[in-house]
Amino acid sequence: MKDAFNNRLEREGKLNFCCLNITNRCMFKCKMCYMWKDAACPDSEAPTFDHWKQFIASFGRFTNGKSCISFTGGEVLMSDKTLELVFYATELGLDTLLNSNAYLIDEDKAKRIHGSGLKKINISLDSLNEDKHDFIRGTPGSYKRVMKAIEYLHKHAVNLYVHINTVIMESNLDDIVALTLWAVKDQRISSIHFQSVAQPFNDIPNDLWYEQKEGSLLWPKDRERIERIFDELIKLKEMYRDKINNPSAQFRIFKSYFNNPRNFVKKYECHMYNDLINVSHFGDIRICNDMPSIGNIKEEGFEMERLWYSPLADAVRENMRKCTKNCTFMVSCSYDEQEIYIK
């Protein structure tokens, strides 16, 4: 019998989002992500195609097919499993999202994406200035590949929602308004979404990372520029509500975050304990990346429901609810307009 805490979880609703990190391989050397510095996950330790399918089926049963699965990496299209898994999830009735730097999307790949039934794709684009985008992504020619990918998807992947995802940092701060205007006016683009730069993924945790040498190159320091750019974004949001995903209130939180990164935590408990899970390229399942894994999808007889209601998962959720860390997920990826943040 489930305890009172789990009964409350059931009443409040189950998971609505799952992020599958299909691979940690990536051809880019992004300034705000250090995953490329790690060796690729050995095939012997990675989940097999059948492991991923087993998980997707179990997740679909647990959520009654009313959730979204996000396929990501690394660069997720470097895995030959990805589009088959997208097709499998779509056939089960799950909403499907793919996050990509678009480097590998040629005409044939665009056709295969269409054939997979994918609902949405997030394409990383940080500036309309070719040199800046290539610098941020650490890969010459990456800007041109993004633009060609958008053409191919528009031509071959009909009804696909094409979203632009942009990380705001020092290098592209002055380009953000122009990029937004391009995205909202281009009929090939469904919407644009912004994230604020955080400590590079896969770096050694450090609360003062933005004061260190490499971090300081990413971190915007001119408060007048920060205020001006985000005020412009707030105005554009009022004009193009459907094409800019971020709420106006989130842009105000971004301003506070960049002005004082030590002082942006929410006034109340973390809400993510019941919202989403993340599966690593090793198959480990986490409710929060800073908390212990609650299991692995390679386990024989894996079932999401059993794992979700386990004592270990309960303990992780309880620790998340008590957590007071300045978590950047609260600002960018898991911003909740209904919550109250310290400004």
Write the layout of secondary structure elements.
Blueprint: H1 4-12, E1 17-21, H2 49-62, E2 68-72, H3 82-91, E3 95-100, H4 107-116, E4 120-124, H5 130-137, H6 142-156, E5 161-168, H7 176-185, E6 191-196, H8 213-218, H9 223-239, H10 248-259, E7 276-279, E8 284-286, E9 295-296, H11 304-308, H12 311-322
Parallel strand pairs: 1-2, 1-7, 2-3, 3-4, 4-5, 5-6
Antiparallel strand pairs: 7-8, 8-9
Helix pairs in contact: 3-4, 4-6, 7-9, 9-10
Give the class-level CATH name. Answer: Alpha Beta
What fraction of residues sit in β-strands? 5-15%
Structural class: alpha/beta
Oligomer: single chain
End-to-end separation in angstroms reads 42 Å
CATH topology name, in short, is: TIM Barrel
Number of strands: 9
Q: What do you see in this structure?
A:
Helix 4 packs across helix 6, helix 7 packs parallel to helix 9 and helix 9 (223-239) runs antiparallel to helix 10 (248-259). A hairpin with a 4-residue loop joins strand 7 (276-279) and strand 8. The chain has one domain (4-330): Alpha-Beta Barrel (TIM Barrel). Mean pLDDT is 90; it is low at 4-13. A 9-stranded mixed beta sheet has the order 6-5-4-3-2-1-7-8-9, covered by helices on one side. The protein starts with a helix and ends in a 21-residue tail after the last helix. The protein has helices spanning 4-12, 49-62, 82-91, 107-116, 130-137, 142-156, 176-185, 213-218, 223-239, 248-259, 304-308, 311-322; strands spanning 17-21, 68-72, 95-100, 120-124, 161-168, 191-196, 276-279, 284-286, 295-296. 37% of the residues lie in helices and 13% in strands. The chain is globular, with a radius of gyration of 20 Å. The protein is built from 12 helices and 9 strands. The protein is of the alpha/beta class and 343 residues long. The longest helix is centred in the last third of the chain and has 17 residues, at 223-239.
